[in-house]
Each structure stands twice: as C-alpha cells, then as structure tokens.
Known about the structure:
The chain has 444 residues and is an alpha+beta fold. It has a single domain, classed as CATH 1.10.630.10. The chain has helices at residues 19-24, 26-34, 55-64, 73-76, 79-82, 91-101, 107-111, 114-127, 136-153, 161-175, 178-182, 192-218, 226-232, 243-273, 276-290, 304-316, 348-351, 373-376, 395-412, and strands at 39-44, 47-52, 69-71, 133-135, 323-327, 331-333, 336-338, 343-346, 413-417, 425-427, 431-433, 438-443. The longest helix has 31 residues, at 243-273.
Amino acid sequence: MQLTTSAPRAPALPFVGNWLHYMRDPLGLFSSAARIGDVVDLRLPKFTSFLCSNPLDINYVLLTANKNFVKEIFMRDLRRVLGDGLITSEGDFWRRQRRLAQPAFHRDRIRAYGAAMVDSAERTVGVFRPGEVRDLHCDMMRLTLDIVTRTLFSSDIGNRASDVGDAMDAITRRYSSPLFLALPVLGHLPLAQNRRFDRAVKSLDALIYGIIERRRAAGGEGQNDLLSMLLEARDEDGTQMTDKQVRDEVATLVLAGHETTANMLAWSFFLLSQNSHVDLRLASELKTALGGQLPTIDHLPRLAYVEHVVSEALRLYPPAWIMGREAVEPFALRGIRIPKGAQLYFSQWVVHRNPSHFPDPEVFRPERWEDGLAKRLPKCAYFPFGAGPRACIGGGFSIMEATLVLATLAQRFRFQLAAGERVVPQASISLRPRGGLRMKVVPR
Length: 444
C-alpha cells in the first residue's frame, strides 16, 4: 500500500499549533478537526497526535490490535491518584487485576446494590423543596458519592464520606484544568493547587488503607460490598491482591463511579428540561410501571424508556468525552504512517454525533434506541464506556444506577432550568456543566 507522509492537519497557529485551540474550546477543536477527515493531525507540541473519528479505525485500535497500544500520556498521569488500577495499569498486571475484579461486577452481583441506590436517591428526594432553585449537578455529585461509598464500604465509611467527597473534589479540580492537562509539567511545581492535590491524595490514602486494615483484621466477616469482593478475590494460583492493589482499585472505583454517573444524571435532567414531550412520556412510563412505588431491580424491564433517556444523554453528553491510546510500534491507518509513540484520540463527543449513524444527531430523541439500535450500530459508533477488553468494568453498574436514580427522582419531580441559566459543557477529566446546573424543583 502506498503510504502518505502525513495526515491532513487541523488549522493551527504558528509555534503553538493547536494548544490554544484545545485550552479555549477542546470540543470545538475536535469537532472541527473531524470534519477534515477520518484521521487528522493535531499540532500539539511535544506529541505527535491524531484524532481518529471513523468507528472502523477506533475498533481496530481498541479491539482488533489492542495489544499494540497502551494508554495515552494524559491518562498515565492519573497514576498519581489511581496507582495501577484498572484504568491505568497495562499488560499482564492489568489482565490479572481485571480477572480478580470481574466477579464483583457480575450482573447478578451488581443487582444486589439496587436497594442501596434507590435508598440514597430517596434520601435526596427528601431534601428537595418545591419551588427552590438548586445546583442539581452538585446534588448528583453528593448522591453518587453516597452510593459509591455505601456499595464499596458498607458501614465502614461512617461519617467520613464527606472526607472522600472533599478529597475527590480537590483531585477533580486539578484534572479539570486545561492548563494542567496541556502542560503536565505544571503538576510537579510547588503551586497552591498542587499542594491541595497532594493533601487530597494523602487523605484518600489514609482513609482507604485504614478501612482495608480494619477489614483484614476482622477477617472480612459480615460484609457484602465491593471491597469485600476485592479482598476475597483469588487468582488461579491462589494469590490475592495486596493492600496497595486493593487501594488502587478502590480509588479507581470511587473516581469513576462518582464523577461519571453524576454527570450522566445531571445531563439527563438538563435534556429533559429542554424537551417537555420526552419528560411527559417518561412520566407516563413511571406512572404505569411504578404506580407511585419506589423502583426496584424487578422494575427494570418495565423502565425501558427511562433507560433510553439515559442512553441518549450518554450519546449527546458522554461523561467520558474523549479517550486515547499510544502506539508502541509504527503502523498504517488509512494509508497514513502513524509513528511509534504517537497519541491517538477518539472523541465520543464527535463520534456520537455522526449523522450517518444518528440522524438529526443534535436532537435529543430517546426513542431512537427502540427496536435494538445498539445492536445494529457499527462497533464503536457508540462507546460511552469505551470498547474492547479495556471497556469500563463498571458500565453495567453505572447504567443500572442511573436508571434507578432517574426513576426515583423523576417520579416525584421535574426540573426547570433556572431563569438566566446558561449551560455550557466543560470538557476536562469528564464532561460536566461548567459552573454547575441551577434548576428549579417542580412537583409532578
């Protein structure tokens, strides 16, 4: 095959290339780059970087030839928080950790956490007052933190859940800064934000290691949570995770299970507020399926439209809005030479808006997921939780959680965007509403 020497380039500025574009508007940069071609050269200093937007190419990297790639450089920086958890580890070590953690996320296992999810959601409902204006994104962050700490630690967390929340907030703020993402070297300078970040990591470590130590001493009896599953997991040779390995997986689950699901729920309520016909159909299903009762896992088959709302929110506002891989060897993609060490990026924000797969892609239309659309789509045309062997282990947990929480809250209330509120997505470590999401609480 005749190889071209380079991919088409995104329009760039002298000297700084696309860095300023990325820092100012990363979603706009990737959206405009994708219109140039399936594989586009992004001019990011220090790195040879490409945006790949064709599902066939994404499938090749994430599935077909996944062993020829490792996590990209920005994700590897997360090791400062997550250590060698499932998101950041590689190779045989990752495969062993995945094998050990997998039983904790078996479908039957995660169904056991449904009652805790609904109970946490009902407690959130209890603090809402008709007519008040609340930051619903902040509410969803507190709610999902409560769920993840309860399902991970059972009663061990006690009154320390707020400590976890404070630590995760400081960590998320550090990785939400475009400047820090663009210039990783800043993360090693004696800046105030770095000092807060370091204190947060130490605080999280002390809490997690303390719980692990108490569990080990007690023999793990009487607990039925994700932590107990991780502590009890044994590999084929009988070995178990070390305290460090358990800590890394717990930190990964707290960060991923807290931030992403909160954003998923916040965007779902925002989209419902902008599409009254969808909200009315959702309310009708909830009335028929639940009859005023709290949802349980047994109701899930009757909450199909609720799940379609979640799927469509994930399409339009995917919390994991971009992911990447680094090539460990040179290879060719669509006749283009990709050198060793190149960073390849795939943006769910871009791919999920491809009109070839999603007609009227900017329209919030949950019914598009009826009649088995997910099975008809090409692989990697829709990948909110990644794809291939490295797909998010907690994807099923997150969908079940979002469906039950949405059903619990939406049965009692609808939410109107506060007067003058302008909602802008902030693309950082995840996709969140910039500055929060102020919404008015309206009873059904």
